[in-house]
Amino acid sequence: MSSVATLPDRLGEYTEQMVAETGGDTRDGLVERLSLHALALGAVLLLVLPVVVAAIVSTKPTGIVTSVADLVPGRSGAANYRRALVGLGFWRFMLNSFVMAAIIVVGKLLVAALAALAIVYYRLPYKNLVFLVVLFTLMLPVPVRFVPLYRLVVELGWNNSFLAITVPYLASATTVFILRQHFRSIPSSLVETAKLDGVGPLRFLVSVLVPMSRGIIVGVSVIMFVYAWNQYLWPLVIIDTEGQQVAQVGLSLLRGQASSGEIAWSMVMTGSILTLLPPLALLVAFRKPLLETFTLQQR
Amino acid sequence: MATREIFENRLQAGLLLFPTMVVSAVFLYYPAIRAVGLSFFQASFGRDDAFVALDNYARLFTSGTYLDSVFVSVLFTAVVVAGVMAFGLCVTFLIHEVELGKSAYLIAAIWPYALPPAVAGLVFLFLFHPTLGLVTSYIEALGVTVDWFTNGPQAFVVVALAAVWKQIGYNVIFMTAAMNNVPDSLTEAANLDGVGRFQRLMRVYVPVMSPTLVFLVVINTIYGFFGTFPMVDLMTKGGPAGATNILIYDLWRTAFQFYDFGFASAKSVVLFVVVGALMYVQFRLSDRYAYYGG
Fold first, then answer.
1. What is the CA radius of gyration of chain B?
2. Contact A226 B114 (CB under 8 A)
3. Which of A78, A140, B35, B55 has the least CB density, counted as fewest CB within 10 Å?
4. What is the C-alpha separation between B176 and B57, in angstroms, rounded?
C-alpha cells in the first residue's frame, strides 16, 4: 500500500499530459460530461417531481389532474391551506406532532447525554455489558412489542395523552451510540485538564462536552425529529381521540374523507405538503451537521 | 497515559444511567418479554387470558393467510431492497462523477430522507389512482389497464415504488459518504488502466464500499418489513386479496381489528426473530469488513 500512496501526484500529471496530447479527446469529454449531467438531472427529477406535482395539486380547487397539461398552479392555494388547517382542523394534528417531536428530541438528547457521560467518562465494572444492554434495544422496534406495550400504556392510563407517544421513545440506543463515538474522539488531554481543575460531572458535561459537540447535537436532533415526526403505527394504535392525533394519522383521516367523496383530493395533497414541510425544512437548513453526524455513525 | 475515565463515583454513574435503564426496562425489554409470554395465551378484551401452550404457533403454520403474508413480505422486501440499492447506487455514482453542481444534486437526491412514509403513500396513491391519476393515462396509453385497486400484482408494484422512493435519500447519504472514502489513487489507477466508468463503479467502488452496502441491506430490509406499514395502510389496506398484506400489516390487523392479542404476540415473536437474525448478520459481516475504515 505504501507505494500506492506516493502515486497520486505523478498519476495526476500523467493524465493531464494525456489529455493535452490527444486534443480530439476534449470534445468527447464534453459530450460525456453533458450526458452525465443529463442522467443525473433525470434521476433527481424522478425523485423530486412527485412532490412537485403534489404541491401543484394542493393549489387546485378540486385536484383533478389527469394530464401534464393540467400541471399549472391553480388559484386556490391560500384557500386550500386555510381550509385544511382551520376548516378541517389540521392545525391541531400539526401542533400535536410538533409537541410530540419536541419532547422526544429534547428528552432523548438529555437522557442519552447522561448515559454517554457515564459510559465514556466513568471507571465502571461491566461497562461493556451496560453498553450492550443499551444497544440491544435496537432489536426491539415498536412492531415487535406494540401489543404488550399497548396493554401496558392503557394500564398506566396514558392512552390518548402525550405521555403515551413520547415516554416510550426516550431511551435511544442510536443517540447514546453517536454521542459515545463523538465523546471518544475528544482529546483525552483536554479531559485530563478538566479533571485537574476538579470539575464535577454535570459541569463537565455542560461546559466542556456540550460546546465541543454542537454539530453532533444539531445532527442528532434533526435525525430524531424526522424519526419522531414520521411515527405512524404507534400513534395510530394508542391515540383514538381526534384532538390528540398526530399529523401522520391525520392524513389517513383525510384520505378516508377523500375516498368517500367528502373532500377533494387537492385537500389530501394540501395535508401531505403540510406534513412534509417541517422535516424537509430541517433537512435543508441543517444538511451539513446532519451529513456529518451520519458519517460518524458509519464508522 | 491519559485516560478518559476521570470519574470514579459509582453511585453518580448509576444515577446518570438510571433514566436510560428505566425507560429501556419498562418500555422496551418488559413489553418484548411480555410478547413472548403472551404468545402462549389466548388473550383479548374483557376476558381473562387463557393458557394455550403452543396453539398460537401451530395456528401460524397452518394459516394460509399467514403463510401468504410471509411470502408477500419476503418478496416485497426483496424487491424494495434491490430497487432502493440499485437506484441509490446509480444516483450516488452520477453525483460523484459530475463536477458542477454536486451539492445541488446531492440535496435533490437525499431529501426523501425527510419524507414521511404516509406522504409517500398518499402521493403515489394519487399519481397512480386508477381514475384520477396523472401517471395512469400515460401507462394506459402503453396498452396496460391500470386497475390496482383490484389487481394484486399491480398493487404490489405501486406500493413498492412508493416504498423505494421514500428510502432513496437515506441510502444516498450513506453511499455518498462511502464513495467519497474510496482513495483517489484507486480511481486514478483505474483510469490509467482504461477502465470504463461503469466497470470502475462495479469493480473498484462497490468492493471498497461493501461494509456500508451490507449495513444498508440490513437497514433496508428492516425498512421493507416494518417501515412500509403506513404505505400499505393508506394505499391498499393489505389488499387486493392479500397481495400487499405484509407481515406487519397482518400483525396490526390481528391485534387491533380482531383483538386476538395472543395470536398477534406469536406473530411479534416471529418478527423479533427476523430482526435478530438481520442484526446478527450485520454485526458478523461488518466485523469481517472492519479493517476498511481503519
1. 23
2. yes
3. A78
4. 43
| Domains recognised in chain B with CATH numbers | 55-289 (1.10.3720.10)
Q: With beta carbons less than 8 A apart as the criterion, state whether A8 and B185 touch.
A: yes
Q: How far apart are CA A144 and CA A234, in angstroms?
A: 12
Q: Between A and B, how many CB-CB pairs are < 8 A?
A: 304
Place of cell 397539461: A69
Q: Which of A2, A37, A46, A47 is the best mutation test for B, with the most CBs of B within 10 A?
A: A47
Q: Is B28 within 8 Å of A37 when comparing Cβ atoms? A: no
Inter-chain residue contact B109 with A8, CB threshold 8 Å: no
Q: Choose which CATH entry (3.40.50.410, 1.10.10.60, 1.10.3720.10, 3.40.50.10710) describes domain A84-298.
A: 1.10.3720.10
Interface contact flag, B19 A284, Cβ < 8 Å:
no
| DSSP annotation of A244 | G
| Predicted TM-score of the model (pTM) | 0.89
CA neighbours closer than 13 Å in the CB half-sphere of residue B182: 24
Per-residue pLDDT of chain A (299 residues; tens, 9 = 90+): 333 333 444 444 444 444 444 444 567 788 888 999 999 999 999 999 999 999 999 998 887 777 777 788 888 889 899 999 998 889 999 999 999 999 999 999 999 999 999 999 999 888 889 988 998 888 888 888 889 999 999 999 998 999 999 999 999 888 998 899 889 888 888 888 877 788 888 988 988 889 989 999 999 999 999 999 999 999 999 999 888 999 999 999 998 888 888 888 889 999 999 999 999 999 999 999 998 888 775 54
